[in-house]
Amino acid sequence: MKLKDVDYVRLPEVYDSFYGVGIPGLSAKLIDRTETEAIYYRWDGVYEVFRIKVALPSEYFGSNYPKREVYPGNEAFGSTAWCFKDEKLALKRYEAIVKHSISIHESDTNDSNDS
């Protein structure tokens, strides 16, 4: 899928900035994504499916961060992010949230045309 140009930093194809998870060297490789959803495969055999959130520019501990997509934190799992050991279940969830996202966007478009 070709992604549209945006004014923020996108998540990388290989994500390796996991902090505080207790698994040294943990990384995840992007399997597929849309503008608003993604599925990654972690080297420890876990699939992570989530809705992509965009964080505003910010400063933490003296470092500046631009507007950017963010990988979900622990608090997102169970509501906007899910993890699976089974690839088929992960892909099924990914397809379901993509389909739901498309129907929401189509509904928004249809609502704006009903004036």
Summed over residues and divided by their number, the pLDDT gives a mean of 86
Beta-strand fraction estimate: 25-35%
In which order are the strands of the major sheet placed? Answer: 1-2-3-4-9
Number of helices: 1
Number of strands: 9
**Rg from alpha-carbon coordinates:** 16 Å
The overall number of domains is: 1
* Series of H and E elements: EEEEEEEEEH
Largest sheet: 5 strands, antiparallel
Low-confidence stretches: 107-115
- Gap from first CA to last CA: 32 Å
What does this molecule look like?
This protein has 115 residues and is α+β, with helices and mostly antiparallel strands. The chain has one helix spanning 87-113, and strands at 14-15, 28-33, 37-42, 47-51, 53-55, 58-60, 63-65, 68-70, 81-84. 23% of the residues lie in helices and 30% in strands. Residues 107-115 have low confidence and may be disordered. It has one helix and nine strands, in the order E-E-E-E-E-E-E-E-E-H.
Key terms:
single chain; 115 residues; alpha+beta; five-stranded antiparallel beta sheet; two-stranded antiparallel ribbon; 1 helix; 23% helix; 30% strand; globular
Summarize this, please?
This protein has 115 residues and is an alpha+beta fold. The chain is built from one helix and nine strands.
Task: Give the helices and strands, then pairings.
Blueprint: E1 14-15, E2 28-33, E3 37-42, E4 47-51, E5 53-55, E6 58-60, E7 63-65, E8 68-70, E9 81-84, H1 87-113
Antiparallel strand pairs: 1-2, 2-3, 3-4, 4-9, 5-8, 6-7
